[in-house]
Amino acid sequence: MKAKGKNPEDLLMMSKKGQTLMLFVSVMDPSQPDRNDIRPFTEKWTALWQSQLYNNHVDLQVFVIDDNRAIFMFKDGEQAFEAKKFLLKQEYVTEVTIEGQSFDGPAKKLKTTKKEL
């Protein structure tokens, strides 16, 4: 296993193969960054991302758990790391958390820039 893993994330990805894994995604609507009642926006975009990942043969379920937060659940944990890379490219994602590690998305920069103004 060590021979194939080039970095710690590769090792973690290989160790989660075949196991259920959850990934948390936080979303922000850039047209209304100060509003918290964006549940319809969150539901729309997480469903779209789910279908895009599914079309790329990534099997997952999505559960919206808060107005701006959702859980992506994978039957094969290895696929969660592929989804993480995809989600971190989406403009409305503020944060992705997987295995206790948080990664900032593109919308996080928008959020901090608007607060500074």
TrEMBL record:
UniProt keyword Ligase present: no
GO CC field: endoplasmic reticulum
Alphabetically ordered keywords of this record: Chaperone, Endoplasmic reticulum, Signal, Wnt signaling pathway
Compartments where located: Endoplasmic reticulum
InterPro entries per the UniProt record, alphabetical: MESD (IPR019330)
GO biological process, one term: Wnt signaling pathway
PANTHER family listed in its UniProt record: LRP CHAPERONE MESD, MESODERM DEVELOPMENT CANDIDATE 2
Family named by the database record: Belongs to the MESD family.
Name this protein carries in UniProt: Mesoderm development candidate 2
